[in-house]
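Annual report, structural modelling task.

Input specification for the flavin-adenine dinucleotide complex:
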Amino acid sequence: MQDSQASGRKANADGAAGSAYILRELAVAASDPNPDLAGAIAAFLRIKRSKVGAVRILRKSLDSRKRNQPLWRYSLEFEFAGELKHPKVARADAQGDVPSLPDQSPAGGYRPVGRRVAVIGSGPAGMGAAMGLARKGYRVTVFEQGSEVGKRFHDIRKFLKGNVFNPHSNILFGEGGAGTFSDGKLTCRTRTRFTETFLKELVASGAEADIVYLSHPHIGTDKLQFIVKAWRERCVALGCEFRFNTPVESILTDGGRISGVTVAGAAEPFDALVLAAGHSSRPLYRRLAELGVAMDRKPFSVGVRVEHPQAMVNRRQLGERVDASLTGAAEYYLTYNGEAEGHSAYSFCMCPGGVVVPCADADDGLFTNGMSYSNRAGAFANSAVVVPVTPADLDELAASRWPLAVRGPASVAGTSAGAASAPAGTSADPFGMGPPVLAGLDFIRDLEAKAYELGGGGFVFPAQTIKAYLEDRVDDLPAPRTSFAKPVKWVNLRPLFPPKIAAALQESFRNFDRKLPGFIEQGLIIGPESRTSSPVRILRDPISLQSVSTPGLFPLGEGAGYSGGIVSSGADGFRLADGWDIWDAESVCA
Ligand SMILES: Cc1cc2nc3c(=O)[nH]c(=O)nc-3n(C[C@H](O)[C@H](O)[C@H](O)COP(=O)(O)OP(=O)(O)OC[C@H]3O[C@@H](n4cnc5c(N)ncnc54)[C@H](O)[C@@H]3O)c2cc1C
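The model returned the following structure:
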C-alpha cells in the first residue's frame, strides 16, 4: 500500500477498528525504494507497529537539501487502535476528501431544458468545463481547431520529421490543447477543491493515483495522449459533442449578448460561449477587441530555453552518490533579482530528463517549449529562462520605436477575424499592428518572426551556447549535442531581444552559474521562449466568471489570463461549472 492510496478504513493488526490520525512531515530515506510506512510511523511515534492499520499518503515531496542524503517527506493518514496523543499528530476527522462533482445528467444524456453551450478549445480549461457542465445537464459542444489526439500525433510527426506544418494541428493546437505535448507537470501554487477535482478526474481517466498527493506530480507526454482520449470519451458519455478540425472563425453577438459562433462560414446559435482557446489564438483576441469585450494588458515573460546534461544537474542538486532512479531526475528552480539594475529573471517549466520542443503556430514564426516522457530518463535537462515584461515596458519599447519586423497579424488559415482598427504607427497603435490592448501579442509575434528569420527559414531554430551569449558572438562549433528534434543554426541571440531583456538574461546566467556550477560552461540556448503566459486578461466577474462587458461570454483558462498551467486551467473549467447556476439564474450581468 506504500505509494498507492489504501482503500477505506480497516481494522489494524491488533484487530480493533481504529481512529484516523494525520502525521505530517515524516522523513524517510529516499534510498529505500519500498519503505514500510506503518513501521516508520510506529518508530517515529514510539508506538507498537501492530497498532498501526491502513496508511494513506496525503502528500509526498523530495527534500534534497542535504547533499547525498535525499529524503522523502510524507504527510500520512493512518489508522490507530486506541487513543493517540502526540504533538505531531492530529485527528483526521476534519479532513474530508474533495468529492468529484455529482453527475446530474439523466441516464440517457443531457437535461432537455439545458441551454446550448459552445466551448472553444479542448485544452485543460475547455475539457474541465465540458465535463463539469455536461454533468450539470447542459448541452455542450466543444469546438477544437486541431485534430483528435491520435491524428494530432501524426501531424506533429510530419512537422518534426518532414517540416510539414499544419497551422491548426500542432504542438499547441489539437485535442488536449497545449498540455498534451507537455511534460505533464501538475504543479500548482494554490490547491483548491477545483484543483483536487481536476486531479481526481485525471486519475479517473487513467493517470497514476500518486498525482493527487505528490508535491511535484507529472504525467509525461507518452501517457497524456491516452488520458486526454479517455477524458473525451467520458465527456461524450455525458452527452458532450466534440467537433475536431473545426476552427471557430468568429464570435457573434446580438444586442451585446453572445448569440453564437461562425464555423465553416455559417452561423451556429448558442446561448453561451465558454472561451477556452488558450493564449495563442490571436484571431479570436482581435475579434474580441472588435466586439468591444473588456480586456486589459497583463505582465508576461519572454526569454530562451536552456539545456544542460541531466547528470550535471543530478550531481549538483542531489550529490555524487545518489541513485537518481530512486529520487527521479533532479529539478531546479532558479531566480535572479538584480534590483539595482532593475532586472529580474527566473527559470520556468523545468523538464528533468526531457526534450526541448520546437513550436510554431504560423508558418513564419517559431518558439520553444519543453516536455518529458513519464520516466524522465532522457540525458538532458531543460528549462525556460525568462524575463518579465510589463505593460509599462511595452510602452517604453513603443516610445523608443524598438525595431520590430514589419508584418501583419500572423496568417492563420481558416480564420476571418478582422485586423486592427487603429491606424498603424499612431499612438493608439504603438506597434503598428493592432489595438494597444493587444500590444503584448504583437510584441511576441514579432519576436517569433525575427527568430524565424535568424534561423534562416524553414523552421531551422536559432541556437547559441550560453558562453557565446555572454561573449556576444556566434559559436564556431559543430552541431550541438541536444535533445532537440529539428535542425539548429548557430546565431547570436542577443540582438533578438530589447537591450533590457538581453541584459537581464546575461546577468541571470551569471547568477545561476553560481548556484548551479556548470550552468554557463555546459549550457545550450535554443530560442526564443515566448509563450509563458497570456499578455492579455479578459475581464470577468469573479464569481460567475462571466465577461464584465458581454453577457453569455465566459473567458476561461490561460488565454483569458486566469491560469498558468495545466492544473490551474483545468480547475478553472470545474470552477465555472460549479458556479454555473448563478449564470443560469441570470443574476449577474443581466
Ligand atoms: C510544449 C508545452 C509544454 C508545457 N508543459 C507544461 C507542464 O509541464 N505543466 C503545465 O502545467 N503546463 C505546461 N504547459 C502549459 C499548459 O499546456 C497550458 O498552461 C495549458 O494547456 C492551458 O490550458 P488552456 O485550456 O487554457 O489552453 P490550451 O491548452 O492552449 O488549449 C486551447 C485550445 O483551444 C484551441 N483553439 C484556439 N483557438 C481556437 C478556435 N478559433 N477554434 C477552435 N479551437 C481553438 C486550440 O487549438 C487549443 O487546443 C506547456 C505548454 C506547452 C506548449
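Residues 1-11, 95-114, 405-433, 582-590 have pLDDT under 50 and may be disordered.
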